[in-house]
Design brief:
Radius of gyration of chain B: 22 Å
Largest sheet of chain A: 3 strands, antiparallel
Strand content of chain B: under 5%
Order of helices and strands of chain B: HHHHHHHHHHEEHHH
Structural class of chain B: mainly alpha
Number of strands of chain A: 3
Structural class of chain A: alpha+beta
Largest sheet of chain B: 2 strands, antiparallel
Shape of chain A: elongated
Order of helices and strands of chain A: EEHEH
Oligomer: heterodimer
Largest interface: A-B, 20 and 27 residues
CATH superfamily of one domain in chain A: Phenylacetic acid degradation B
CATH class of one domain in chain A: Alpha Beta
Helix content of chain A: 10-25%
Number of helices of chain B: 13
């Protein structure tokens, strides 16, 4: 088995004014070819105006086993939401 | 305290998605790797029957269309290898298994493309059947597979429409062109009907895969949907589906078809179809002949990285 090139995560900006969004991965020996492969794979139908590639091994992820302690504390803080505040109907838009 | 398995089952019951970092049963992982790999291999091998006509497409426009379509198939394969890799395998391992004959690809690609009309029939019928199969997979319980399928389905619609248009052009053409279209339909109809796999009664893994949300609609139900959608299209083309038993069933409000030749299906699955050896030889040959390109690109990357370090130092 010949070792494959490293994987790169691909992010595509669909048009000016919006974020780059994760699209998928490519394999490539270096960043330049990763960009070219990403162009060929993810923007064949005008899906993007800009690309980012990041080596998959450089992505740091939160620990899935700690997701409860990480994210559950936000669940009981509804006062952070605008809908938590009931106002008289006369205040139409706030 | 909930066990990992209970948490997994709860996500499945809620029709929620499983993501790569979640715990999952070993069999769920194995089943998905096998299915996604087989799907990826099918896209890659599927480039061959159509690639056969790239240099002989009847016009520059048809050639550009076919080139784009074959390129899409390569892309679909890559999306799917990427989805499989999130399950802890890697592309080179899957390619090794394919090259060693230990993983399969869809049997439909073991049939030859003898005339230009076959390119129309493949787009119309084979891609039409693939869409029937793939649309429910956009709701597959495994997130990366479902997301890859959304991307693929968006592109697949062009494939079917360009194929139908080829058939339409031929069907409205000269007698010779009409005969060519009919001949292509005659040869591709039954293999396409078989693409949905064995009858439900003979499909042993279906139940578990339904439970896991990997499969959403049964083989026979998908096959029926495909037939019901395709028969009126054949009528529109003025072509005859090669099945004397085909008729509208008033009671079931659906088309009944004649008996499927499952011996043929299992012969092709077993490696003895018209093009099995040729497809594998071409695939392995292309991979081996590309070795120097991969080596050169890797050597270049190492050299560039070393040069960048020198400049920095």
């Amino acid at each position: 088995m010949s070792a494959d090139w490293p994987a790169w995560e691909v992010f595509v900006r669909a048009r000016r004014g919006v974020n780059h969004v994760h699209a998928g991965t490519v394999h490539a020996p270096d960043a330049g070819l990763a960009i070219e492969n990403a162009r060929d794979l993810y923007t064949r139908r005008s899906e993007g105006v800009s690309l980012w590639v990041v080596r998959s091994s450089d992505v740091v992820s939160s620990d899935p086993d700690e997701r409860h302690s990480m994210f559950d504390p936000a669940a009981d803080k509804s006062y952070r939401q605008p809908t938590d505040y009931e106002l008289p109907p006369e205040v139409a838009h706030m | 305290m909930e066990t990992e398995e209970e948490k997994f089952d709860a996500l499945i019951d809620a029709d929620d998605r499983i993501e790569p970092t979640d715990w999952m049963p070993e069999n769920y992982r194995k089943t998905l790797i096998r299915q996604i790999a087989q799907h990826a291999h099918s896209e890659i091998i599927g480039m061959q029957p159509e690639g056969n006509w790239l240099t002989r497409a009847p016009s520059l426009r048809r050639k550009a269309i076919l080139t784009a379509k074959v390129q899409d198939e390569a892309g679909h394969g890559l999306y799917l290898y990427g989805a499989a890799e999130t399950l802890g395998t890697d592309r080179s391992e899957l390619l090794d298994l394919l090259h060693a004959g230990r993983q399969k690809y869809s049997s439909i690609f073991n049939y030859p493309t003898l005339t230009w009309a076959d390119i129309g029939a493949i787009g119309w019928l084979v891609d039409g059947a693939a869409i029937m199969n793939q649309v429910p997979l956009c709701r597959c319980s495994f997130g990366p597979y479902a997301r890859a399928m959304v991307r693929i389905c968006k592109e697949e619609s062009f494939h079917q429409r360009q194929g139908f248009q080829i058939m339409l052009t031929l069907a409205n053409g000269t007698d010779a062109q009409r005969e060519m279209a009919q001949d292509a339909l005659n040869r591709w109809w039954w293999p396409t009907v078989m693409m949905f796999g064995p009858a439900d009664a003979d499909s042993p893994h279906s139940e578990q895969n339904m439970r896991w949300g990997i499969k959403r609609i049964s083989n026979d139900d998908l096959r029926q949907k495909f037939i019901d959608a395709t028969v009126p299209q054949a009528e529109l083309l003025g072509l005859t589906i090669p099945d004397p038993d085909l008729h509208w069933d008033e009671e079931r409000e659906t088309y009944d078809i004649g008996e499927i030749d499952w011996d043929e299906f299992w012969t092709v699955v077993g490696g003895n179809g018209p093009c099995n050896d040729d497809r594998m030889a071409t695939k392995v040959g292309a991979y081996n002949e590309g070795e120097w390109v991969r080596e050169a690109a890797s050597a270049y990357a190492i050299k560039q990285a070393a040069r960048a370090k020198e400049v920095a130092a």
